[in-house]
Specification:
about 60 residues; alpha+beta; four-stranded antiparallel beta sheet; 1 helix
Length: about 60
């Protein structure tokens, strides 16, 4: 298994709570939070794209209202 090239979200700036993302050799996407770096969420590019589009469209706003 290769070492992942984790990239920090540009929205995190210098904040302590950061989101990181990395692409794997098999094409999946890994996400992790700086508070718990050993816990990762694995998804596909298509599913991540659908989630991001849903967030941008406000589909999840009711969950944080």
């Amino acid at each position: 298994m290769s070492t992942l090239d984790w990239q920090k979200s540009s929205f995190s700036a210098e904040a302590a709570n950061c989101v990181y993302v990395a692409a794997t050799d098999d094409g999946t996407i890994k996400l992790r939070e700086s508070d718990t770096p050993n816990t990762t969420l694995t998804t596909t590019p298509d599913r991540l794209r659908a989630f991001v589009l849903g967030v941008k469209a406000g589909e999840f706003d009711r969950l944080v209202a």
